[in-house]
Amino acid sequence: MGPPLLKATTMQFLHNDLGYRKEGEIVEVSLASAANVRLMDSSNFSAYRAGRQHRYYGGYVTRTPWRHPIPSSGHWHVAVDLGGHAGRVGASVRVLPGILPTAREPSLSSVPSLYQGRSDAPPGSGMYEEDREYDVFISHASEDKDEVVRPLAHALSAAHLSVWYDEFELRIGDSLRRKIDKGLATSRFGIIIMSDTFFKKGWTNYELDGLVTRANTGEQVLLPIWHNVTKKQVIEYSPSLADKLARSTATHTVEEIAAEIVEVIRSRS
């Protein structure tokens, strides 16, 4: 059974934009007095603000603080109101880390030795850099990280895909070229965040050359995403890429694009 469905009326409310949050993180709301508390994703918050039907997590809270886990990774909002009644609303909101999984001893096969070398994979995974493969490689311009790339990478990772994304993989002292080459060579799918900035970058062109080469040999599948660009711009940059089926951030949310990518990758596994 899903969260309650309600039609809002125009009223004053306190709004806290939580931004991108991971599934399992805890939202904590402290109230000065009893009030309605709603935890909503972006689409339902827009409906709530416009006075339309919407779904939410929460209700009329009389005991403070109120806590609720983030149901799924994505962009979330908290709204606090008095339901149209007179009075003042006082509230503070913060996000707490979720409960960590139960600790366990790593298997002997996952412990690095002088012969096995070091691992950049999560502890206990038993996966070493030389053997690691990725479901997807994300090629992008750094200027697009906040708006598109970081939320997309976290959404794919939350869906248990192995993602080569520079913030996940690069450490101080790493060779940028070697790391990128490794990611390009061991990824089954290549996501290209095509933007005006992407077209002008040197590193993105280097990555794109590698992705196209592997796609032409059938070793990799390209998944283009258009961000604030027109088809004319894409054609001028690369006519062959303009012919590929793509998704645009102008018509789809990052969450919708991530869900579709997850479905495509799993269907081909």
TrEMBL record:
Domain TIR positions: 132-265
InterPro entries, A to Z: DUF1883, DUF1883-like_sf, TIR_dom, Toll_tir_struct_dom_sf
Top-level lineage group: Bacteria
Protein name: TIR domain-containing protein
SUPFAM superfamilies in alphabetical order: Atu1913-like (SSF141099), Toll/Interleukin receptor TIR domain (SSF52200)
GO BP of this protein: signal transduction
One Pfam short name: TIR_2
SMART domains: TIR
